Request: fold
Amino acid sequence: MGTPSGPGASRSASEGAPRLRGLREALAEVELPGAGERFSALCGEGVLVVGATRERALSRDECVRLRRALTTLPCPSILLGGVAADAPELGAAFDVRAGSTEALEALLDVIHAQPLASLALVELLRRSEERPVHEALLDESLVYSTLQAGPEFGAWLAARPPRRPPPEAAGSPVHVERRGSQLRVRLDRPERRNAFSAAMRDALCEALELAVADTGVLEIELSGAGPAFCSGGDLDEFGTFPDPATAHAVRSTRHAARLLSACAGRARAHIHGACVGAGIELPAFCARVVAAPDASIRLPEVGMGLVPGAGGTCSLPRRVGRQRTAWLALSGEAIDAETALAWGLVDALEASR
Reply:
């Protein structure tokens, strides 16, 4: 075994596609001494891929042991296809499923390019669903802050061409209107496709603090102005955090996801157009999400060397499960409104706008 020395030590990308293993072979290897290094994102294969093979079915005890080992594996685990009918519970133990070799290749491309962020993502998702919202958001913030100082995000930043941000429009980036017991909250940076900036976060938190504190607010309606509900984090602000510790302290102090989750039972989101990153992570907390037919949902953060940082590792698994959340984040691919409805990520489709 090699000595871990950084993400460049990963052999996954340089040695080609990982070997496809059957369940029995996978169990034998993950239980070997040193299995952590064998599959490590730093000095091992960086991913475990398991697929159906002609082999004797695992016993109940073996299934339990494999599930337990997968929860601590220091790399993503991928199930290609399904598992034997007599061991269906094993399917849920893997971090993500690939329905085809093409889907597998798309996942492996990202995992090989961003091994640290990929590992951080699956480790977060392995425990997110079972943890209270506050603790899940705390975990996410700590991991996100750590990755902001990591080499993968640094490389993504360095590859971006210099860009002069356009001038901000006058007025608040969030429009708030109170109508009796209803509070209407509209993201209002249409000229920037409602990119989620620090100023927008602050204004949204101010509106949500009102909703949490005022029991007279019986309904909260969240929407976005212009052609997109929210195109994700404002890329012009990426990399401008003072340091990881302060960035985490800011999220601990002012976090739209935490406030929205506190009043989620009264909240309804209307999403349309681009719903990227925060543009789906926040609406997913709401009790009801209605999508326009043109809604396009995507989680691109892992490709930047990060994980979802607006609450997505908490909100999405509670709607669609950790495997589909992992697929969205690792593949970076977009799903349309109809797919989101079938998955349960949105609750209804509205008529064309």
Notes: The chain has a mean pLDDT of 90. The longest strand covers residues 174-179. Residues 7-113 form one domain. DSSP finds 13 helices and 13 strands in the chain.
